[in-house]
Write a structure and sequence with these properties.
about 300 residues, mainly alpha, Alpha-lytic protease prodomain-like, Alpha-Beta Plaits, 2 domains, two-stranded antiparallel ribbon, 8 helices, 5 strands
Length: about 300
């Protein structure tokens, strides 16, 4: 198994798997450092103002740090070469980490709703000030910047765990933005802080659900995208000099590399050696151009 196979994104930008993991580790450590700083500042501001929403938002940011550590760990673990127990490599560890991040988000969301309900039933009010506005504004800008950074690297690398981390950053940015809007209306509604905490929780829960759907689909197995099937047929036509009858496509995504198997019909008068040579050329072209390992089953054209 070759971990140096390249993956190609929609822009045609190619990365080796080792480069992919390197970008993942860099994003993880950048996120950890930024989130720890934001947590301390937001928790302090929430404590000073007595705002449950800001304190909850601080814990949401801290959970980002934990998920970012998961990004770094998954990069290290998934880079392990194939072994006798895992002949297809360890790339799917990324998907397991993504599920862990989603579970953590669900737990955080539940705790926010529980605390918000307690504050609402106790009719607790919150006095916001300039400190809350400054800290929350900084949080919105910083978290959106981290989200865009993670999404950019996710598009370049095709990493599900980076996409999950980007979702986490984006949900934190949106929750801080909602809190900022609530701060300006806090003087009119005594229950605004409780409501903001619930809204934050719902956003976090939605982000977790999106991560679960994406990750589970990848684990269960997804069909090869139509555009890639079309690309494979184009390669076959170039090599065979005519339209090829490719069918029965099966896609196997191991994260660290991708494999595809399919059937190809060939003229019955070709020798086994000629058919094998033709299949080898197509498999090599698919590997070189698309970064996908292909296995072709040959069939004679009947009639």
């Amino acid at each position: 198994m070759n971990n140096e196979l390249t993956s190609t994104d929609k822009t045609g930008w190619k990365l080796s798997y080792s480069d992919r993991l390197r970008y993942q580790r860099i994003e993880g450590w950048v996120s950890v450092a930024a989130n720890l700083i934001l947590f301390v500042v937001k928790y302090w501001a929430g404590t000073v103002t007595g705002s449950l929403a800001i304190v909850a938002d601080a814990w949401h940011t801290l959970s980002d740090s934990v998920s970012s550590v998961g990004v770094v760990l998954s990069a290290r673990l998934s880079s392990k070469p194939p072994d006798s127990n895992h002949p297809f490599g360890h790339g799917r560890i990324e998907l397991i980490v993504s599920l862990f991040i989603a579970a953590m988000l669900f737990i955080v969301a539940y705790s926010f709703i529980s605390d918000a309900w307690s504050k609402f039933t106790d009719r607790q009010t919150t006095e916001y000030g300039t400190l809350a506005i400054i800290v929350t504004t900084v949080s919105v800008v910083a978290k959106e910047a981290l989200a865009r950074y993670a999404y950019t690297l996710a598009r370049k690398t095709g990493s599900e765990v980076l996409k999950a981390d980007g979702w986490h950053h984006r949900s934190d940015a949106v929750s801080s933005l909602i809190i900022l809007a609530g701060i300006f209306s806090g003087g009119f509604f005594w229950w605004i802080d409780s409501l903001l905490a619930v809204i934050v929780a719902v956003l976090i829960g939605f982000a977790a659900w999106k991560i679960v759907l994406s990750t589970v689909n990848a684990l269960l197995g997804e069909p090869l995208p139509k555009e890639k099937i079309d690309s494979i047929r184009i390669i076959g036509k170039e090599i065979c000099g005519r339209a090829t009858d490719f069918h029965h496509f099966h896609h196997h995504n191991y994260i660290s590399h991708s494999e595809v198997t399919f059937h190809m019909r060939l003229p019955g008068d070709l020798t086994i050696s000629e058919g094998h040579e033709l299949a080898d050329k197509i498999e090599k072209a698919i590997r070189d151009r698309m970064g996908i390992e292909a296995t072709i089953h040959m069939e004679p054209i009947k009639g």
